[in-house]
Write a structure and sequence with these properties.
By secondary structure, this protein is mostly beta strands. The chain has four helices and 16 strands. It is globular and about 45 Å long. Flavin-adenine dinucleotide binds next to strand 4, strand 6 and helix 1.
């Protein structure tokens, strides 16, 4: 079920380099699963912009976004009290029943946000690996830890946490892995954790965001799939990983 609703911005603050946390209040009733996304209407732009649900608590919705262009720049300018029109209830989300005893959650950069709601839904009983380029990009380590998760932060340049890539911080002693982040990170994880069940959230440029335009289609081992409708979460083994 999808819904189009006006939300009111209650806060919008920078939490890392070019990364903002926006809290909004509105009708969240269409948001069900961790890993879903909302499509944000921005004045003056034809296409809505997809952003993952980071958290939902009653009528409060949290989004975390990086400023990369016109749409996200405009979002960063919004003050508390501003209205934002959202299309909610989009995408399939992560399957909680796959988690098993020792789930692993891996987020890279602004792939981290949807994993927060997932960790919350798992009652904090998970290992979490968060990967960033450098210390100034790190966010949400404490928030995951407060849920009770076992959190490791890695940075490529070693300026915070362990030095290296997320793949350096994961091992196979897990029952299922869930990931969101850059394509190269997802592909490297799928290779390293081959044989262990995994769920990956894939990003594609989107048109409608609700399955009508086919603009976000990808070819998987099981045929053509729309990232906005059959995804954004896919079984890692279903994805055809390109070099
Ligand atoms: C399902 C889904 C969930 C997402 N969740 C988040 C999130 O939680 N936080 C977040 O910061 N970003 C997220 N994104 C990416 C976000 O949608 C884009 O960064 C945003 O649409 C860029 O809009 P813009 O107008 O600022 O930039 P534009 O001016 O449209 O583009 C600027 C740059 O961003 C790239 N870009 C634009 N859209 C996408 C896209 N959909 N995927 C990859 N690259 C893109 C363009 O290639 C270009 O290089 C998500 C994308 C998808 C598909
Ligand atoms: S964006 Fe239109 S079908 Fe996915």
């Amino acid at each position: 079920m999808q819904r189009i609703c006006d939300f009111t911005v209650s806060s919008n603050m920078q939490i890392a380099k070019r990364v903002f946390q926006m809290k909004l209040v509105g009708d969240t009733s269409a948001i069900v699963n961790a890993g879903e996304f909302v499509n944000v209407r921005i004045d003056g732009l034809f296409l809505r912009r997809p952003i993952s649900v980071c958290d939902v608590d009653g009528d409060e919705l949290t989004l975390i976004y990086k400023t990369v262009g016109k749409g996200t720049d405009a979002m960063s300018e919004l003050k508390s009290g501003a209205t934002l029109n959202l299309l909610t209830g989009l995408g399939n989300g992560y399957g909680l029943s796959l988690a098993g005893e020792r789930p692993l959650l891996v987020g890279g950069g602004v792939g981290v946000p949807p994993l927060y709601l997932l960790a919350k839904r798992l009652g904090g009983k998970c290992k979490v690996v968060l990967g960033f380029n450098s210390a100034d990009e790190v966010f949400y380590e404490e928030e995951f830890a407060k849920l009770g998760a076992d959190v490791t932060v890695v940075t490529v340049d070693g300026s915070y946490g362990k030095k290296g890539f997320v793949t350096d911080a994961v091992d196979g002693d897990i029952t299922h892995w869930y990931a969101c982040g850059p394509y190269a990170m997802l592909r490297a994880l799928a290779k390293k954790l081959e044989g262990v069940g995994g769920s990956v959230s894939i990003e594609e440029r989107m048109g409608c965001g609700f399955g009508a335009c086919m603009g976000c289609s990808i070819i998987t081992k099981n045929g053509v799939k729309r990232v906005c409708k059959e995804g954004p979460v896919f079984d890692a083994e279903e994805v055809i990983w390109h070099m």
